[in-house]
Amino acid sequence: MSVIDGSAPAAGTLAGDTPHGIGTSVPSTDALAKTQGTYPYAADLWAEGLLWAAVLRSPHPHARILRIDTADAAAMPGVRAVVTHEDVPGDAMHGRRVADRPVFAHDIVRHHGEPIAAVAADHPDTARLAAAAILVEYEVLEPVTDPEKAFAAEPLHPDGNLIRHIPLRFGDPEAVGEVIVEGLYRVGRQDPAPIGAEAGLAVPRPDGGVELYVASTDPHADRDIAAACFGLEADHVKVVVTGVPGAMGDREDSGVQLPLGLLALKTGCPVKFVATREESFLGHAHRHPTLLRYRHHADAEGRLVKVEAQILLDAGAYADASSDALAAAVAFAAGPYVVPHVFVEGWAVRTNNPPSGHVRGEGALQVCTAYEGQMDKLAAKLGLEPAEIRMRNVLSTGDLLPTGQTVTCPAPVGELLKAVRDADLPPLPDGDDESQWLLPGGTSGAGEPGAVRRGVGYALGMVHVLGAEGTDEVSTATVRVHDGRATVICAAVETGQGFTTLARQIVQEVLGVEDVRVLAPDTDQPPAGPSARGRHTWVSGGAVERAAKMVRTQVLQPLAAKFGMSVELLSIADGKITSYDGVLSTTVAETLDGKELWATAQCRPHPTDRLDDTGQGDAFVGLAFCAIRAVVDVDIELGAVRVVELAVAQDVGRILNPRQLAARIEAGVTQGLGLALMEDLRAPRGVVKRPSLTGYALPTALDAPDVRIVKLVEERDVVAPFGAKAVSAVPVVTSPAAIASAVRAATGRPVSRLPIRPQAAIVKPQA
Amino acid sequence: MSTYAQQTAENVTLPSSLDEAVAALAAMPSAVPVAGGTDLMASVNAGLLRPAALVGLGRIAEIRGWQYADGAALLGAGLTHARMGRPDFAALIPALAAAARSAGPPQIRNAGTLGGNIVSAAPTGDSLPVLAALEASVVLAGPEADREIPVSHLLTGMDPLRPGELLAFVRIPLLHAPQTFLKATGRTGPGRAVASVALVVDPARRQVRCAVGAVAQVPLRPLEAEQWVAGLIDWDGERTLAPEACTAFGEYVAAACIPDQPGVELPPAAVQLRRTVAALSRRALGRALA
């Protein structure tokens, strides 16, 4: 359903039809297996004599555990082991950024679904029954579920309820604009809802160690957490990454991996776990529900003078990635606009709500919804077109972010906005033939053309690329060439983002070798870091390129020396080595003469700073931007919204694989659409309601709009390998705000809450 | 060592006729009949239900089609939603076809059956308001004798399925007049109904019959509103209504289905639901009399 009318993809360097190298649509090697259902995911793992695990989870969001009695469960026939907090030999607390989360809750339960105990049995049903038979006596406590009340509430955790506070001060606090608009915005709890639920297999090793076969997106970090919890040296724990069935951020649920390993170590048998859909919803991290209060000041021409904001992130019970999300929210609070004076108070607080963590575009998405809502309000107040007021304020290279950081990377925000503004609008359906209409409300026929209003809205979004605030973003890769074939060893996890395809393209480009294999990652390889924020395109892709270039030099050096020319005058393509003048022509295989060449390289971008106590600092390595124009149809009586088209213009640096890039953008805007219109995991009083794919609606093909990629701006980022930027997160960030803007235009209602509920899009008849 | 392979495979019977199915149920009273399995198997997979045995109804050819009997259609309980959604069926009972087409994604429609929709009796079951508006009846095959009861008696639990009984057929009068089914889900893709309205015109009995689904445990019939609007229609003439009458009908239906609580203000969610029902009923009537 996508149309690319941007620049044509670069032609392959190779004759024939097979795409080859950077800039071409090299197909993914997994695609066929995934389509045919033969691709092995974690839930498909099997080992001889395996046991099945089940986890007992808390039914209460906040309670004191008075007693845990596992005797009945342990005595059940078929049960092989029961583990609780008493059976954790190593560190009882863990966490991705801050070790504040217990492996098993023992004195206090802090969220619905927190693991309390785990069972291994010879049948999955036995394991579940045994887990249910564990007797836990609770003293139910009043849950803190309103993040605004978390400040004054009794501490839910020894670390306190305030996880982080960033007061950003930029410019003159006394500055006042001629026009002032205020708004209160809320963003709901989006679940990453990976189509494959969490699963894994733990296999004990004869040396007392354990191997975890899990769909990890950051195997080395998961290994370190697991080793600390098991009380083992890191080299006694190996994490092997299995097929990842969807990842929208950190696909870590330590609540699964740690009990699995403990049970395998205790029983000496392989142990398998497959989460039910309900457990999956309860266990993994969600997008931060956020409350945002904004005041925008502008002059009479619509130029922004000052932005004041208060941003409150609901982190759930544990810190996880909330600190990073808050930094992004505060830094991008004003969006990709030039604002001379910015004052933001940002807080991430602890509550008894479901846990929040890294879901792509965290922080940046929530503020995009709010600042774009404010831009619409300013436009209405000043009588300007929504696109026009945005155009008067766009950020460009050389401008300052409110964090004091100068934007040094390409920032073609105005060009992106112009591209979506000037793109043709989708035609109205032919009024005579109602069967052509796909009306809001879908195929059930409830829609009535007379009640449908069309609206057009705009949003500009930005995200940072790579980890921020001093994170050491390093990756290591090894390239081996032997017998006409290249092998890439890199622990960067293929989550569907296309890293293995990219690695193959890079090696094809540099070494001219067609047959490139990428080995499956595990923790015996050097670390490559998490699959998030476009890291692997940058750091792992960069490491692969460097290693490939080192191998290339090793291949060419002897030849160059022999013929008395420099390496630069030789080129490799299609397995052949030729000199610039065509005199020399030989093949890679002949040159290698059966030798095996290896090279390992690292890529480490320039360091960044932590935001200081006024929110200032060069915290980001790179930025990526996106402009989206949404066209929606709204049934103003029923409040049903259908997104007709999303026109996307994106700053990509350089197109590495056109087809894969289009797929990432389509997937991203659709995920954003889910948040805009339907996805919200409800947890009244901290108890998750309807944790199933029936209760939690995800966009389907009928909900997905036509995604039109009108422009891909290829302005290379000179500090990035290949000049390419991360592409997956920024469409997710921008599309909800664009859809909200379009619903505002269609209904005249002040849509300020995501997802947009039908009652927010109903226009009451004039009485 | 794992016992996972020993699923209850031997406890599944697959009869090829209704009589065999009834006999199989009689032989094993704890067995659960399963047709499309779209509700039942989801519960089994979630571990909520562990039937001792299953009687699969998928191979009973006689309940997978339909036949005509005395101005009515006798629909097999095993008709799938996909089959009911096809044009030939839509020419026969348009509202039921529309309801079938709106029920879930294609995978569910290919498996889910009419009988299953009635027996599971979910408040959001899409065929149920249509059957209520059509005043359909159901034929139950049992160990003693078959019996036929109005569908509403089954749905309300007034006359529930007896042990050993199977839902075999659904009898629907053929009206040869406009009928509509409208469903609000709040989204464009397949979803459960927030509210749905089935409306049929019955020129022979000079009636308009309407049923509202998903707002209560069973489909609701706003009888007074039906009678009022039937009285406005010129049955021998054009059979059209002014837009104001359609609007008033919508309000009437909505107020009947979501009644005022004496002394209490309606919560916002109920006001919103009432508005939705009013819009759906108005549109349904407008289209039926267009």
Automatic annotation (TrEMBL), chain A:
Residues 36-142 form the Aldehyde oxidase/xanthine dehydrogenase a/b hammerhead domain. It comes from the Bacteria. Residues 1-22 are annotated as: Disordered. Gene3D superfamilies: Aldehyde oxidase/xanthine dehydrogenase, a/b hammerhead, Aldehyde oxidase/xanthine dehydrogenase, molybdopterin binding domain. Transmembrane segments: none annotated. This is Molybdopterin-dependent oxidoreductase. It comes from Actinacidiphila epipremni.
From TrEMBL, chain B:
InterPro entries: CO_DH_flav_C_dom_sf, Diverse_Substr_Oxidored, FAD-bd_PCMH, FAD-bd_PCMH-like_sf, FAD-bd_PCMH_sub1, FAD-bd_PCMH_sub2, Mopterin_DH_FAD-bd. Residues 4-177 form the FAD-binding PCMH-type domain. Keywords: FAD, Flavoprotein, Oxidoreductase. Signal peptide: none annotated. Transmembrane segments: none annotated. Pfam families: FAD_binding_5. It comes from the Bacteria. This is Dehydrogenase.
